[in-house]
Design a protein that fits this description.
It contains nine helices and 19 strands. It is α+β, with helices and mostly antiparallel strands and about 375 residues long. The chain has three domains: about 180 residues, FAD/NAD(P)-binding domain, CATH 3.50.50.60; about 55 residues, no CATH class; about 80 residues, D-Amino Acid Oxidase, Chain A, domain 2, CATH 3.30.9. The strands form three sheets. Strands 1, 2, 9, 10, 11, 12, 18 and 19 form an eight-stranded mixed sheet that branches. An eight-stranded mixed sheet has the order 6-7-5-14-15-16-13-17, sandwiched between helices. The protein has a three-stranded antiparallel sheet with strand order 3-8-4, with helices on one face. The longest helix is centred in the N-terminal third of the chain and has 21 residues. It is globular and about 65 Å long. The protein binds flavin-adenine dinucleotide. The site of flavin-adenine dinucleotide (FAD) has 39 residues, from helix 1, helix 6, strand 13 and strand 17.
Length: about 375
Amino acid sequence: MIRASVAIVGGGVSGVFTAHYLVELGLRDIVVIEKNYLGSGSTFRCATGIRASFTSREHVELMKYSVDEWLRLSNIYGFNYLRGGYVWLLSNEEELERFKQYVSFQNKHGIPTRIIDPPTIKELVPPIREEEVYAGVHDPLAGKADPFKAVLNTAYRLMEKGVRFYTRTRALRLLVSRDKVYGIETNRGVVVADNIVLATGYGTKELLKTINIKIPLENIPHHALITEAFKEAFKPLLVDWATASYIVQTFYGGFLMGTDIPEKPDTPLINRLRFLYKITRVWTRYFPWLSNVNILRYWTGYYVNTPDHHPILGPIEEYENLYIAAGFSGHGFMIAPATGTAIAHWIIDGKPYPEIAGNLKLERYRKGRLVKELAVFG
Ligand SMILES: Cc1cc2nc3c(=O)[nH]c(=O)nc-3n(C[C@H](O)[C@H](O)[C@H](O)COP(=O)(O)OP(=O)(O)OC[C@H]3O[C@@H](n4cnc5c(N)ncnc54)[C@H](O)[C@@H]3O)c2cc1C
């Protein structure tokens, strides 16, 4: 049997960063349980993007905090993080009017986004065909980080500080005694802990089912590809709003692209071909030279969505020592510093920091207090 003060289930960015913040708050008696290898869920499949340009106060505040923390964490753990910006590409007046409202909200909340014209877009993204763009929005605070090193460098340093990581260890069910969850049964024995954190993506739904708790999570497939590597062509992550498509050049030089497609669950090959067709059409229009670039890899990952596109964070009413960090709806990488900080403070101080994370508990669905967000794609 393994005993710990805190057991974190899930070795993605949410679980590993939660361990980091617990250690910073002085706790070391922590175990992290991961059914596969660290990062093997959505984290190593993500598009690396980090921004605070959202349209809910919850997202803006938590992402603003995270943007600052990404810089600090990248210095502590020595991974790549760059504030290269986001540029949203808009294709008509209607989109522009909508984004003017978002920008006004963001500026009021300290996010320096601004509407930009095609020549300014060209300055930020020199190889783009300017004539294809109607207008844009620039978020200079946004950027990207290397998910591989962010997770692995952090985990290795935490191991040196005494945090225990058990990979290839699957949590099977939660163990309850009266109003407490006292442990986890895994395929390698029982883990007993004072506090338990579920940072298990969609797996959270299955684990909560073992104690009869329902959580509104949906697993939505998302496709991405990466090309061969080139020297840096542009810094920002670009979003084509009309087609919900993005492109970013990773730190390793490849162009990583993704988009939404209507999914038919029983036709995986057709889904993939549809994805490839759509994504290559979108980005070769802006960058005709991409037609000559080789695709190295394609993959599918999952967005774990909630009904209001905000994560579910914090303790649940029934079991105060059980904490959830899931349902990031496509933004769990960028928000991970706020996730980890909030959960760590909940455990150590009994309340979250940043305080606004308290609005994102599971009970908001039971009480009908959903949060509204408009600037999501996917
Ligand atoms: C194509 C794509 C692009 C994306 N782009 C971005 C982006 O640019 N920016 C952004 O912020 N987000 C992005 N996301 C979303 C982001 O990847 C996720 O929100 C984030 O990685 C969630 O991290 P996590 O640690 O909560 O979950 P995960 O990384 O999924 O980690 C959960 C872990 O729990 C483990 N687990 C599950 N069940 C069990 C169990 N029973 N026992 C033990 N372990 C278990 C899993 O194996 C997994 O490793 C993207 C996602 C995809 C698919």
